[in-house]
Amino acid sequence: MGIAVLTDERAMVALPVHLITVGCGHPQEPRKRPNGAEFHHILFVEKGEGMFEVGEQGVPLSEGTAVFIRKNVPSYYYKIGETFQTAWVTFDGAQMDAILAYFHAKEFSYLQNETLRAMIQAVYQLAKRNASPAILSKHAYDVLVTYFSLLEQEQRQPALRLAKQYIEAHFAQDLSVADIAVAAGISESLLFRLFHNEEHSTPVDYLRRIRIRNAEQMLLVYRDRKISEVGAACGFSDAAYFCKVFKAETGMSPGVYRTRYAF
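and the corresponding structure tokens:
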């Protein structure tokens, strides 16, 4: 068990991320902070299970879970059962607001992943060996970025699936990127990143493809409908724009497509 406390006012002002405290193997006592902690926390449940009540959320978290709690957010965590052992880092710094904004960090989040255990232990060993504030800053930054990168990976597939499902169910409506992001429970910037990384396109590109795919089916099934009506039913309010997009996607106009493939 050990706790290292670091104080360096110059580092706090100058470094983008500044390590404040780090600990490992700590038999966690109940910790209640009605006004929140002075610094941001990443905790790791090394053994046992604890209840985390942060803001309006309350969840039991077991061994292998990493937890992020923003500073100044009311929190209360305590053991469930006989054992509750934690490791942690607390940190702040000149660029923390920008870094947390980049990752769209919520007041409280958690993920099940063993990676953070060894990383926090390594930071603790460096602190005990009196590593420089700059070196500790680098490793604290690595812990922070690793945590939020893993959290994003964990959220990625469910969020992307929700976004696609929403598009496929509501393609006929006047959808915006904001609408899709809200339905998926993520930010617009993360939505764009997910589609770029997984689909090599944008949400708007995907929506357009879904609309054209449905238009292809409707042109053949509902042969008595006007082309403008098919376009409107698939989310295109302007018939000329529908024809332009349809030709760009399929290589032919809606009329030619219907004539060629109608049965």
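(Above: one complete record from the training split.) The domain at 2-153 is CATH 2.60.120.280 (Jelly Rolls).
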